Amino acid sequence: MKYLNRLSIVILVIAAAIGVFLWQRHTGGPVTKKSLTTVTLALDWTPNTDHTGVYTALAKGWYKEQGIDLKILPYSSTVYVSTLLDSKKADIGIMTTEDVVAEAAAGRPLVEIGSLLQHNPSGLIVRQDSGITSPRGLDGKIYGGFGSPVADAIVKSAIKYDGGQGQFQNVVLNIEAMQALESKKIDFVWGFEGWELMEAKKDGIKTNFFPITSYGVPDAPTLAFSVTPDKLKKDGDLLKRFITATARGYEDAVKNPHADAQLLINDAPKGTFPDTALVFDSQTFVSTQYTNKAGQWGIQDPKAWANYAQFILDTGTVSDSANKPVKSLNFAPLYTNQYVTSAR
């Protein structure tokens, strides 16, 4: 009888353990370190408030709950995110739609699986004391860019939309954009309302800001998590779990911008944010850009995506592998909402 009692206890303990395991799998609860799959993420830039949802999900253990050990790769200005994806040095990368379209045209297609921002909060920035009050006043001025033909063409189109010729001197910056503008080494930059514009304000520099979507550039999600078609085919479940955790992080940042900005500051590499007050100010604005009108994070509107992508092609700066201009593409394979919608 004693033996049977002990046996019953053992059976109950085993049954309870199995029950806990199944419950954790069902609810996304704790998993053992051995069961974690390493996923590498390449950022589009040094850590900033565009990435807060990722750092929030990382800090709160939401990737681990999905069985993911997320590794954020150190940012390098000399290595393209697309190169890291194609060479399998990164599983997922954050890219602009301009770059995704350009890669597809060159025969290296990528797929956007979730947008970071729902709108394009960027624009052309000039010093107020320049006397320039609209983009047409930028003709003949010095533009501080980063050597992207597509970006340069978009700037040109905004100037022409306002009645200018779109003719300006282009210099490739080797210093921070706002530093160059504030020191009057250049006349204007293309920057973000939620960062560069706030940076200038904190530095006491009065500026004029011309949102590019007010000057003929279609509004659309600006940054997205992107993968290779091969990754999409082989690791669909893993990508769904990544998006599930990531969506949770961004949705949390919408509700708790200050607290989550602190998580970003805490977990980004030391020295990333010399001015933490700028991070909090930026987060207050950027958190309003994460979701659409329905409160959904990550969704890519098909019409907005196609309009912006075709606009990019219409600049005439996107070429195929033979260096011939590409005028049209099938946009449908270049993005998907299936992982965002299935994460809800």
Write up this protein.
The protein is of the alpha/beta class. It has helices spanning 2-27, 52-59, 62-65, 81-86, 97-105, 149-161, 177-182, 196-202, 229-234, 236-255, 257-267, 276-286, 302-314, 338-342, and strands spanning 37-42, 68-72, 92-96, 111-115, 122-127, 142-145, 169-172, 188-192, 207-211, 223-227. The strands form 2 sheets. Strands 2-1-3-10-4 form a 5-stranded mixed beta sheet. Strands 7-6-8-5-9 form a 5-stranded mixed beta sheet, with helices on both faces. Helix 2 (52-59) crosses helix 10 (236-255) and helix 11 crosses helix 12. The chain starts with a helix and ends with a helix.
Q: What would the keywords be for this entry?
A:
five-stranded mixed sheet; D-Maltodextrin-Binding Protein, domain 2; 344 residues; 14 helices
What is the CATH first-level class name of the largest domain? Alpha Beta
Relative helix content: 40-55%
**Going by CATH, what is the homologous superfamily of the largest domain?**
Periplasmic binding protein-like II
What is the distance, rounded to the nearest whole angstrom, between the alpha carbons of the first and last residues?
Answer: 51 Å
